[in-house]
Amino acid sequence: MAKQSMNEFLQQVGTMLYRYLRKRGLAHEDAEDIVQDTCYKFLIHKDGIQSDKVMSWLYRVATNQFYDLKRKETRHPTTEFDEVQLTALINMPEIQVLKKEKLQDIRDTLDTLSTLHQELLVLKYELGLSYKEISALMNKNENTLKTHVRRAREEFTERFKEDIDDE
Questions:
Q1: What is the CA radius of gyration of the chain?
Q2: Which residues are CB-neighbours of 95 under 8 A, at least 6 positions away?
Q3: H-type helices in 24-141, by residue range?
Q4: How would DSSP label each residue in 98-125?
Q5: DSSP type of residue 130
């Protein structure tokens, strides 16, 4: 029974981490790899992790692997050409193309923010987590997080407006 509940827990956590990583801009395969590595590390180290810090630990491990991958991509840039996505883009109605451009504008603006602000905005608005859940994940005070989220939102809005005005 414990094995079954552990599998269910890891599936739920894996889904949450996968969604978080995809929202941060990772490719499907990279997100799956990081989730798999994170779950594997959890299984190896689970006895040394405090039960009230499990979610925070999992989130931190996945986030650190995300940063490692981004650093690696920065040092060794590669050009990926995904024919499936290109074909799908060509076959989309014009409105879908415009939506995709707007999403890219949002992602570009998000990339200009600090990593903390990026994380907070993705967790709060993309994944729909509550302040309490984010507080547990990041191991920070809930009121402090509310302030950081407000600042992140204001900074994002200001930069997004600047980008639109520049166009």
A1: 18
A2: none
A3: 28-45, 54-75, 83-91, 94-111, 115-121, 131-138
A4: HHHHHHHHHHHHHHTS-HHHHHHHIIII
A5: -
- Please state the domain extents for the chain: 1-80, 82-167
> Quick one: DSSP state of residue 47?
G
1-80: CATH topology = Rna Polymerase Sigma Factor; Chain: A (1.10.1740)
Banded model confidence at residue 1, pLDDT cuts 50, 70, 90: very low
pLDDT in tens, 42-93: 999 988 988 888 888 999 999 999 989 988 877 766 545 454 455 555 555 6
CA atoms of 138 and 135, how far apart (whole Å): 5
Chain-centre distance of CA 141, in angstroms? 21
What is 82-167's CATH number? 1.10.10.10
**Gap between the Cα atoms of 11 and 58, Å rounded:** 13
- Report d(CA 111, CA 105) in Å as an integer: 10
Read off the tokens for 159: 């930069």
pTM over 0.85: no
